[in-house]
Amino acid sequence: MEDLKFLMETAEEARKLAYCPYSHFSVGAAVLTKSNKMYIGCNIENASFGAGICAERTAIFKAFSEGEREFEAIAITGGKEGEDGHFCAPCGICRQVLSELGGDDLKVLLGSAEQYETYTLGSLFPFAFTKNNLS
Ligand code: THU
């Protein structure tokens, strides 16, 4: 499979920007578009806990709101603040959003630049609820 280590390295950089004073768990994400552009995201927490947002949605919403519509991959890394990032599975809400905006073929890299696994969104989120269910 294509070497996307650079995308995971970028996710590691993004993780340094996390704002997580409540959980002390920092997450970084980097989205790669089909046109070869990268957008980064980190988790951003809030004193009103439900108002926080995950790194994955920060990254893909940034890209989408800049007009991007075709996505190749997302790299995700997370761990205790101040420690090295490692395998961090995306939460259910992020999987739903990635399903809507990225689709089943989106590559999902989980781990660290040193060691990561590549999945497809479809394999991580089978039987997604999609726009087809509404028609
Ligand atoms: N978090 C993410 O950013 N992405 C995930 O996929 C899992 C969880 C964040 C949310 C919260 O700021 C912290 O990690 C602890 O749940």
Radius of gyration: 14 Å
Order of strands, main sheet, comes to: 2-1-3-4-5
- Mean pLDDT over all positions: 97
- The low-confidence runs, each spanning 5 or more residues with pLDDT under 50, are none
What is the global morphology? globular
**What is the CATH superfamily label?**
Cytidine Deaminase, domain 2
Count the E strands: 5
Q: Which small-molecule species are bound to the chains here?
A: tetrahydrodeoxyuridine
- How far apart the termini lie comes to 36 Å
Which topology does CATH recognise?
Cytidine Deaminase, domain 2
Give me a quick take on this structure.
The protein has helices at 5-15, 55-65, 92-102, 121-124; strands at 25-33, 38-42, 71-80, 107-111, 116-120.
Task: Give a verbal description of the structure.
By secondary structure, the protein is an alpha+beta fold. The chain has a single domain (2-134), classed as Cytidine Deaminase, domain 2, CATH 3.40.140. The protein has 4 helices and 5 strands. It has helices at residues 5-15, 55-65, 92-102, 121-124, and strands at 25-33, 38-42, 71-80, 107-111, 116-120. A 5-stranded mixed β-sheet has the order 2-1-3-4-5. Strand 3 (71-80), helix 3 and strand 4 form a beta-alpha-beta unit. Helix 2 (55-65) runs parallel beside helix 3. The longest helix has 11 residues, at 5-15. It starts with a helix and ends in an 11-residue tail after the last helix. The mean pLDDT is 97. It binds tetrahydrodeoxyuridine. Tetrahydrodeoxyuridine is lined by residues 20, 23, 25, 27, 43, 45, 52, 54-56, 88, 90-91, 94.
